[in-house]
Amino acid sequence: MRFENKVAMVTGAGHGIGAAVASRLSAEGAMVLVCDIDADRANESASEIGGKACVIDVARREDVQRAVDEAVSRWSRLDILVCSAGVMDREPFLEATDDHWKKVFGINLRGTFLCGQIAARQMSEQGDGGRIVNVASNSGAFGGRGRAAYGASKAGVINLTQTMAIELAEHGILVNAVGPGPTLTRPKVQGELMASAQNRMPLKRYGTTEEIASVAAFLASNECSFTTGHVFYADGGFTIAGIMEG
Predict the structure, then answer these.
(1) Which listed residue (154, 188, 204, 233) is catalytic?
(2) Would residue 154 show up in a list of annotated catalytic residues for this protein?
(3) Residue in 134, 132, 133 with CA at minimum distance from that of residue 172
(4) Which pLDDT score is estimated for 216?
(5) Residue 1 lies in a domain
(6) Quick check: helix, strand or coil at residue 208?
(7) Catalytic-labelled residue, pool 6, 52, 150, 206
(8) Is residue 2 in a domain?
(9) Residue 150: active-site member
(10) Could you tell me the CATH number of the domain that includes residue 92?
(11) Residues 6 or more apart from 129 whose CB is under 8 A from it?
């Protein structure tokens, strides 16, 4: 198994893409710290895969430090970090509020920075490298209606990924990102939006969380040994077609 004896920390792992990533890593042998701000979701996800739940707010440094310490205390090391915690709240640009901007950037960008920095410090102390996978978005590459905060925060994640890759290479830590396109994470909510988006997608369908998780798993594996600083778009051709829904 690709991740036998590896310790992974996955944020936003109580549902959606994060839960799928945690499940995939666990199925391939990893010991997984399931991190989420929602205690019920974290516990449920951890129970399903035999992982350890950890309730954190990724925008709080002390919470992130506690999570990394928990992983090290329980399993003696940390090999993989997947930053999947994120929020996408749409607001028209002219109506966007400071609170909206602060919330989106706090979770999406500050959270990725804090998790990446604290995890990388632990990995560098261990001295045998590691893998960090950030969850970006095709919204970070193209503008989209109602996505000023979300798109800007994900563009920041992409740039942060590149900078981390450059600075952490000397420590043997590879940093990449997966960029999901339209993904079916909340079927009941997304159903009404699917037809419009699908009609403009080259593959004519939404992706599944498992498909995103498969890309993240590759980026977290030893098979990805000569690639760092890149974004791998798993989006049904959405980005290459240069389109955004809405």
Answers:
(1) 154
(2) yes
(3) 132
(4) 99
(5) no
(6) coil
(7) 150
(8) no
(9) yes
(10) 3.40.50.720
(11) 123, 171, 172, 173, 174
pLDDT tens digits, one per residue of 137-158: 988 888 888 999 999 999 999 9
pLDDT of residue 189: 47
Residue 167 lies inside a defined structural domain of this protein = yes
Structure confidence by residue, pLDDT tens digits, 48-78: 999 999 999 999 999 999 999 999 999 999 9
In a domain, 81, yes or no: yes
Helix or strand holding residue 217 (H, E): helix 209-220
Which helix (H) or strand (E) segment is 174 a member of?
A: strand 173-180
Contacts of 9 (CB under 8 A, 6+ apart): 32, 33, 35, 67, 68, 71, 78, 80, 81, 82, 115, 119
Rounded to an integer, what distance in angstroms lies between the CA atom of residue 169 and that of residue 171? 5
Q: Are strands 52-55 and 31-36 parallel, antiparallel or unpaired?
A: parallel
Residues in Cβ contact with 106 at an 8 Å cutoff, skipping those fewer than 6 apart: 59
Show the domain range for 128. 7-233
Is pLDDT of 194 > 70?
no
pTM for the full model?
0.94
* Domain total of the chain: 1
Contact criterion met (CB below 8 Å) for 70 and 10: no
What is the residue-averaged pLDDT of the chain? 93
Q: Where are the alpha helices (DSSP H) in 60-168?
A: 61-75, 98-105, 111-126, 148-168
Q: Interhelix angle for 111-126 vs 148-168, to 10°?
A: 10
pLDDT the model gives residue 101: 96
